[in-house]
Amino acid sequence: MSATAEPATTGAAGKKTPPKLVFAAPRRAKPPRHLADLTPAERREAVAALGEKPFRADQLSRHYFARLVDDPAQMTDLPAAVRERLTAELLPTLLTPVRDLSCDGGTTLKTVWRAFDGALFESVLMRYPDRATMCVSSQAGCGMNCPFCATGQAGLTRNLSTAEIVEQVTAGARAMASGRIPGGPGRVSNIVFMGMGEPLANYKAVLGAIRRITDPSPRGLGISQRAVTVSTVGLVPAMEKLAAEDLSVRLAVSLHAPDDELRDELVPINNRWKVREVLDAAWAYADRTGRRVSIEYALIKDVNDQGWRADLLGRLLRGHLVHVNLIPLNPTPGSKWTASRPRDEREFVRRLEAHGVPVTVRDTRGREIDGACGQLAATAAK
């Protein structure tokens, strides 16, 4: 993603307002149109434009979203000639698996996908005793340039389409339904937009994906909005826009530092929207939706894990509808950044709890399979 600056303007008092950052992904060819890109009404229009009866769109939606089928041979309620044409036009192949790696006894599955134009990105399916969570990418690469993140250091290739995001979920849903993941046949219950990319920098496609994922079956996958989490590094205008959508998805803010001096370095977008602005937008989201905000905080040895920073974070967060998710950093090869010492992690937790702030330490799945976001895709690209 590139950031361009609109010219500074001069207000009535003669003061210059800072230039507005405009985020734009590199221009590239668009992925083929897919059923998951379209609303139910748009699907019917698309089918009618192909010379078929609009109700065929409902049949196609039932196969794709409810039965998780995209093979025309299995769509026996459609005439053969019709099914071949509709699947060719509305269910094109968008993603090709390049590499699968599993760990945790097969209950964690990480996949590198290649898109139609060669762009690479990742998704992760994690099965727990009580749920199955899909971590999906919203961009191929990322333009936020956070120095401790493998994806951020790779830069942005392009935004993903709504259907490319949804296809990651349906792939995981098929793996669960088929019994491929140990534990027997099951279903994907939770979605987290915490894979490659900054979701709110690809706002329209991400919002469309949320709709497809949460619309009742067979219009969508029928996953509860309350089981969907959207992360952001703090794009304040987009956070405010998301709050106005009246969704009940959870917002996760990747904060990583409670003070502007350090966050300017760790999360460069902080040079545009400071910690207080980001948190104010988060509290407004919580007030509007009634959903607890998750504060994501990667603990980095001798960088952001000092006791005084835990105290500062606790003072900023106490009294709000919030939960802190501490993440032991999953280091990338050759990086100077590494996870905090266990004793420093425990002290950070203790200090936050002393301020009355609920906190957990994230389960670090996938460490042995290039678990850091973007790491496996970078390996596949080489």
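The above is record 1. Record 2 follows with the same two-line structure.
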Amino acid sequence: MATITAPARPARLTSGRLPRWTPWALLGAALVASFVVFGVVAAGDDLADVNVAGALVVGMIVYMALIFVVSSIVESRRKAVDRLMTALVSTAFILALLPLVSLLWTVVANGVQRFDAEFFTYSMRNVVGDGGGIVHAIWGTVLVTLMAAVIAVPIGLMTSIYLVEYGRGKLARAITFLVDVMTGIPSIVAGLFIYSVFALLVRPGISMGFMGSLALAVLMIPVVVRGSEELLRIVPNELREASYALGVPKWLTIMKVVLPTSIAGITTSIMLAIARVIGETAPLLLTAGYTLSLNTNLFDGQMMTLPVFAYNQYMNQGTNPDAAIARAWAAALTLILIVMLLNLLARLIAKVFAPKISGR
């Protein structure tokens, strides 16, 4: 006989299970109530001064209390605790996201007003007020960072390969310890180190783009080493053993099996290292220096970079402070866009060079 199944009834407050819309309704009510309270408190002042972040935090706290109480009454204490923990994790995510969203909004809102053709085609040569651009700072940032990557990536990658594939005993432990120490080195120390070396070997007071690249490379190497080391360690040993069983030497196994398997993660770690150093200001002030003109020679003369440009425009505002501040915000936005483009490029490279899996 055919079995007739009764249609499922929607959840009700009396059925022991909350409807799907209940958490959203409680969240909306809590946020509305929180913003109303904060609006009433700020009514004596300007309503634009309402503490949005505070209202969101208080609203989420009220929502957690409401969802726990309602779920305890309608469902069970176990389900209420589950909903409370879900709300707590969501609140933590929102709190972590708020500074990022606020930062991006502030930079975009203040920096987009100078995004014009002049800003990206002119330098600051002979400019003391309005106008000017950052073409010299963009070239300086790209060249200095590229040279730093050319220096740091091979050293860091080969160090991680040694630690994973060859390193044993006291030497490997000493290298790991030194890499961990270098990870916490302040950026100004790296700049002072490179400046001191060149002052002793060449002449005091020297500044050029290559010195900035060396300072950034010192900061990049430990990041590349630690990231690449962890990714090489998670490559299954079965892949290495299968290659050895076919008579492939170890160095070729690393080149053809281990590195291609982890290339996506290694590329990501390299991009993280670049993002770590591309916004550094202190070491570049000491090493690469500062100039108002375009200089594309890393080994001759000072070079301007975007972080130093933004810092200088804020500290030395010239005859028109508003124009200088606008240039500083636009330089910061340009730096963020460059980092974003580098990350997109890294994902593309990882997708192209990652090992292909048949059937997908």
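Residues 21-112 form one domain.
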